[in-house]
Amino acid sequence: MNNTRRDFIRKISGTSALIVGGMALTDAYGKTITLQSDVKISANDKIRIGLIGSGIIGHYDTDTALKVPGIELVAVCDLYKGRLERAKEKWGKDIFITQDYREILSRKDIDAVLICTSDHWHDRISIDAMNSGKHVYCEKPMVHHIEEGQAVIDTQKKTGKVFQVGSQVASSVSTLEAKKIYESGIIGELTYVEATNDRSSANGAWQYTIPTDANTQTVDWDAYLGDAPKVPFDAKRFFRWRNYKDYGTGVAGDLIVHLLTNIHTITGSIGPSKIYALGELNYWKDGRDAYDLVTSLMQYPERKNHPAFQFFNRVNLADGGTSGSPAKIVGTEGMIELGWSSLKVKHFKRPKAPEIGGYDSLNTFTQAQQEEARKAHAVLFSEDDKKWNYGKEIVFKDPDGYDSRLDHFINFFESIRTGKKVHEDATFGLRAAAPALACNLSVELGKPVLWDAEKMKLE
Ligand SMILES: NC(=O)c1ccc[n+]([C@@H]2O[C@H](COP(=O)([O-])OP(=O)(O)OC[C@H]3O[C@@H](n4cnc5c(N)ncnc54)[C@H](O)[C@@H]3O)[C@@H](O)[C@H]2O)c1
Predict the structure, then answer these.
(1) What is the value of pTM for the model shown?
(2) 284 touches ligand 1 (CB under 6 Å)
(3) 4 CA → ligand 1 middle, Å
(4) Which residues are within 8 A (CB) of 246 and not within 5 positions of it... i.e. 6 or more apart?
(5) pLDDT tens, 307-316?
(6) Which tens digits make up the pLDDT trace of 168-209?
(7) Phi first, then psi: what are they for 205, rounded to 5°?
(8) Cα–Cα distance list, 122 to 151, 164, 249 (Å)
(9) How far apart are CA 260 and CA 430, in angstroms?
(10) Whether residue 156 has its Cβ less than 6 Å from ligand 1
(11) 293 with 280: CB under 8 angstroms?
């Protein structure tokens, strides 16, 4: 069945037919592959979920989770009353609502929670949730500060609950395709990676709409602050929390973390050993204390599964250029160019023979010496030895309407149902979050930060 037909079935049949078996999507080499979202899943086995943090991504995540057969939303928690009313408006009047997440965790009828709060609450709620017997899908970055990560890992190990970090690129079909291509060795030895996530608009720079009824009656401000410094109510700090270091992790924790997740998934790397970063606030000077431009360079040492390589990455929220391909994975014999939902591979084999002539020292020698050198070269190398062998360009595109978030949720719920490994467990989550958070640290310290990715400790 072709992609168009599948989309058609998705559109007309809604949830129950969304997961249909064995679709004929072909990979970059023309081999048939099956998307995770096309594997048949039984809806008999109900999983009841609670949402904690019903903001922008809470809506995306919940709507996506509900597309997986057998998932039912039972309760929603948020600190702004308007979002609780909205939850009832959108997901049904029987949904239990609360401003206290502990009321969600104490309910026996909830199996799993989606944690979609601002970053500074991720570790606390994740730990409390797993200790309360709930499986957890926690949005990225897994933690607000590097030191908080180990406790999340320990709690997951102690409780045995399923824990998935919500950087959906880890389940994306083109990322997994790039991984396969990378592992085939077609681009030669990996030397360099670059990845960017630039934006230009106000929403892209997190100047989200603030409701006109934002005040201390509608927002539980004290609960929101949690372990952050006590400051008087400020609607901007609540509804545009990303712009403040006390609650968010800046462009590095927010967006560079996705780039790291992608690169770690493709290369199988556990992370860099050295992180240098520069940060500036150039354009969005609206009272925020977060940078709107962060550029970083990370050194990945040689490990069992990859050679040493450098990773350049950048997020510019005031981008006035035309953003090109968001990522390139460069080897000695080729390159994987990653688009947002596609990839292209260019590759070649170098000629055996070194060149002679052209931009070379040859022309600077006497006529006689040039002839002698050419003769010597011809003795050593055949015409074939002089050829560059360019391979056929490989192209892969996500099917129309493809949603990696859906595949990420399928992976999460499958793990709860069958014990299958999640794509982004707590260890993976910390190994992606820590180098991103180390960018902020490097900017503040004005020097490189050393990270032991094996032990998951700053040095
Ligand atoms: N995976 C992705 O692609 C992706 C995209 C965007 C955001 N995110 C992540 O999702 C999280 C939420 O981002 P957002 O844009 O939805 O923010 P948002 O401000 O729209 O929503 C956050 C909500 O969390 C609530 N909240 C905060 N602390 C709480 C607490 N202690 N108890 C209950 N509710 C609490 C707030 O009331 C708010 O409504 C962030 O960590 C962000 O990094 C992930």
Answers:
(1) 0.93
(2) no
(3) 34
(4) 120, 228, 229, 231, 237
(5) 999 999 999 9
(6) 999 999 999 999 999 999 999 999 999 999 999 999 999 999
(7) -95, 15
(8) 12, 12, 12
(9) 11
(10) no
(11) yes
